[in-house]
């Protein structure tokens, strides 16, 4: 029974476009940096994976834009692991300003051998470390 | 019977990450700039829309990463309009290096009133202008 | 007798280039976001300026790169106002990892009328608010 | 008697900030990509340097912002090598919209051994290849 990992960040000026909103592509970067923080909570630091011979590559990304984040606002990015397959991890991200959901998306990563870059099963130690943030997949999650 | 719009670009050094690949979020920016070029071909310049009272906002983005583009490579971004609804436009993008498909994705935009920012039907003149690049939706396109 | 304003941040993956270092242009964005935080400390929030009829535009930027910041490192950006002229503000930035100086640079801003965008004197209330971080200019500061 | 190298590019939407202007840091990225094109003209492709055992690292960057480039404008970046020292290269960049000078800046690079990353003299073959774009330093160029 996992619960969301949460990372707070503040919108930077350079991330906002002419409409005063965060440009759509930057939300994928928000997802990515939140995952780095989730990894820190789970295994200490991201680099431990490559030291132990595995790495993750992004296979698919998705984002639905419901409302805009603006310059200098503090927003929360919630992450939950909605599918932990044999070789693939689907992480769902919800960007919130207070209670208001702004963006709802997900990233699907594939576990690869750190040198050969070929698909490899997610090792047990990593699977165990991620367990606190694994929840049952939402039916609304495409591709999960 | 539309055919793809095609825009060629060269991968910039600052777009590549530590793995030497274009960072995943930047492909959404590639989609966006290709759409600007498609708009130029269709209606002359993007700003004509707001001058005529309508604008587009991104409602959803998706990208599947099949292979990596690298620094200094020339790549082509193909765009086809796979759904032209009453208020929504779904554009599919295929990023290619030569014949090799690297990224396959789509953006769904919603047409809004340029001042009120409320949903409004795509005007006839815009619908007509986009016709050359409209094709029947691929069955593989989620959300279209 | 001012002392530096200090803002801590963590290097993001997307900010690092193929050499594993923060790409040079991103340091100017680090300077900019640190200035936003200094402004928060000085006047509450950046937008107060435009509400009161003035704004700042960047007139010149400079950075000397002494050592590299890398992915996931925590770094501090120190800011001091080294020149508070009639219409211009030169702010010096020092990027540090612990005691190690990585980048030393400055931004020169000009105060403008928020609507006409013409040069205007820095108002007294802003000058007073910035006083805690004003120090005598370093002789090494070009253009100050 | 060199003359400027010239590279044309179009301002991307994601590069423009809330004021509708190219965000200041992105001009350094424009300088960088223009240098990549100058290198292509001089030696064929950038990677030839590392293949031959040398690389360049940025030691200092400077930009003076005179007027704003805006979304969808075509601009030219002119590059001239204003100082070709034993180990350092200072390249000046002028960003123009038509005849109008928008940004005037420079980058100073240091030649390093590609593996040890220690300072090394610019090899003769590279010096010869860059000759067409070397001009006498402008007196206005600080740090050159």
Please name the defining characteristics of this protein.
homotetramer; 144 residues; alpha+beta; Thiol Ester Dehydrase, Chain A; 3 helices
Descriptive overview:
4 copies of one chain form a homotetramer. Chain A contains 3 helices and 5 strands; from the N terminus they run βααββββα. Chain A has 144 residues and is of the alpha+beta class. Chain A has one domain (5-133): Thiol Ester Dehydrase, Chain A, CATH 3.10.129.10. The radius of gyration of chain A is 15 Å and the shape is elongated. Chains in contact: A-B, A-C, A-D, B-C, B-D, C-D. Chain B binds chain C through residues 13-14, 16-18, 20, 23, 25, 71, and chain C through 13-14, 16-18, 20, 23, 25, 71.
Helix/strand layout:
4 copies of one chain form a homotetramer.
Chain A: E1 5-10, H1 26-43, H2 47-51, E2 54-65, E3 74-84, E4 88-97, E5 100-113, H3 124-130
Antiparallel strand pairs in A: 1-3, 2-5, 3-4, 4-5
Short précis:
Helices cover 21% and strands 37% of the residues of chain A.
Strand content of chain A: 35-45%
- Radius of gyration of chain A, in Å, reads 15 Å
- Number of continuous helical runs of chain A: 3
CATH homologous superfamily label of chain A: Hotdog Thioesterase
Strand order in space, largest sheet of chain A: 1-3-4-5-2
Q: How far apart are the first and last residues' alpha carbons of chain A, in Å?
A: 18 Å
Structural shape of chain A: elongated
How many E-type strands of chain A? 5
Provide the residue-averaged pLDDT of chain A: 92
Q: Largest contact between protein chains?
A: A-B, 19 and 19 residues
Measured as a percent range, the helix fraction of chain A is 10-25%
The arrangement of helices and strands of chain A along the chain is EHHEEEEH
Per the CATH scheme, the topology name of chain A is Thiol Ester Dehydrase, Chain A
Question: Which oligomerization state do the chains in this entry correspond to?
Answer: homotetramer
What's the CATH class label of chain A? Alpha Beta
Q: Any idea what the CATH architecture of chain A is?
A: Roll
Question: Which stretches of chain A are poorly predicted, pLDDT < 50 over at least 5 residues?
Answer: none
Q: Biggest sheet of chain A, in brief?
A: 5 strands, antiparallel
Number of domains of chain A: 1
């Amino acid at each position: 029974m996992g619960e969301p990992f949460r990372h707070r960040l503040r919108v930077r000026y350079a991330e906002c476009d002419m409409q005063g909103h965060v440009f759509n592509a930057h939300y994928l970067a928000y997802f990515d940096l939140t995952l780095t923080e989730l990894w820190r909570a789970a295994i200490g630091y991201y680099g431990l994976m490559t030291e132990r011979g595995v790495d993750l590559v992004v296979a698919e990304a998705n984002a639905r834009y419901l409302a805009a984040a603006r310059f200098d606002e503090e927003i929360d990015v919630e992450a939950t692991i909605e599918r932990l397959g044999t070789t693939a991890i689907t992480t769902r991200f919800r960007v919130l300003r207070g209670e208001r959901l702004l963006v709802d998306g997900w990233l699907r990563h594939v576990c690869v051998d750190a040198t050969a870059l070929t698909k490899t099963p997610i090792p047990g130690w990593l699977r165990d470390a991620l367990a606190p943030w694994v929840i049952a997949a939402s039916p609304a999650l495409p591709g999960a």
